[in-house]
Design a protein that fits this description.
Helices cover 14% and strands 14% of the residues. It is α/β, with parallel strands linked by helices and 221 residues long. The chain has a single domain, classed as Ribonuclease Inhibitor (Leucine-rich repeat, LRR (right-handed beta-alpha superhelix)), CATH 3.80.10. Strands 3-4-5-6-7-8-9-10 form an 8-stranded parallel β-sheet, with no helix packed on it. A two-stranded parallel sheet has the order 1-2. The chain is globular, with a radius of gyration of 20 Å. One of its GO terms (cellular component) is cytoplasm.
Amino acid sequence: MQPNHVIRSKEDLLKHFVSSQKLEILDQEQMKKLLEMNVPPQMWEDASNRNLLSFNQELVQETEEFKFNSRKIEHIYLISFLTNITELSLQNNDISGISSISKLKNLKKLDLSGNRIEDISALQSLPNLIHLNLSCNKLTSYTLALPNLVYLSLSYNKLQDKSGLQHSPKLESLYLSQTESTDLRTIPHQLFCLKQLDLSANNITQISHLSNFIYLQSLLL
């Protein structure tokens, strides 16, 4: 099936996005342009109601990895269409809301580092995640229950609650640098698989609790 319109430029994209023509996104670059434009939610809804936006479904189904790093992206409404991706990187943007990510049930690796995220509850619906990077955001708590996580970075967040860690018994790598941690007892002893632990740039004085992690190979204090 031939597309109704081939997008050649950002201006061309916007022109046809608000027109009455049907628009087909042909490749990752076109999707990136839409994301970079920071189109407001009401326009997405309006476009959807008028059937202006469609994807090359075959392309989307074949693509498993997307990287939209350092693009000053604020909104990620289009992300919910990419239901088959397994790896998504959105590091170093201006993202604060991530509710659309909850629909990406096949995600295994997710990098949201370097954004403005405060609420991560949407990630609770991603049980297949094994790698999660949330460093350098605005988190004050981590309460997710993600049983298959192997890698987790929460560094550079002012965490007051890390209770979600107890629900990730498969964790092998845990990064908690500069998270205002003072008591190692907040790291659950159930993390039997832990091999790498970063607690640097914290005010920790008592480390006896570390004896629980018998497979620990790398420790930064």
